[in-house]
Amino acid sequence: MFSTEVKKRVRYGETDKMGYLYYGKYANLYEIGRVEMLRDLDLPYVKIEDEMGIMLPVLSVEAKYLKPAYYDDELTIKSILREMPSKLIAVHVEIFNGKMELIHKALVKLFFIDMKTNKRISAPSVLTDKLKPFF
Amino acid sequence: MFSTEVKKRVRYGETDKMGYLYYGKYANLYEIGRVEMLRDLDLPYVKIEDEMGIMLPVLSVEAKYLKPAYYDDELTIKSILREMPSKLIAVHVEIFNGKMELIHKALVKLFFIDMKTNKRISAPSVLTDKLKPFF
Amino acid sequence: MFSTEVKKRVRYGETDKMGYLYYGKYANLYEIGRVEMLRDLDLPYVKIEDEMGIMLPVLSVEAKYLKPAYYDDELTIKSILREMPSKLIAVHVEIFNGKMELIHKALVKLFFIDMKTNKRISAPSVLTDKLKPFF
Amino acid sequence: MFSTEVKKRVRYGETDKMGYLYYGKYANLYEIGRVEMLRDLDLPYVKIEDEMGIMLPVLSVEAKYLKPAYYDDELTIKSILREMPSKLIAVHVEIFNGKMELIHKALVKLFFIDMKTNKRISAPSVLTDKLKPFF
Question: Which of A22, A84, B31, B60 has a Cα-to-Cα distance from D104 of 20 to 30 A?
Answer without folding.
Answer: A22
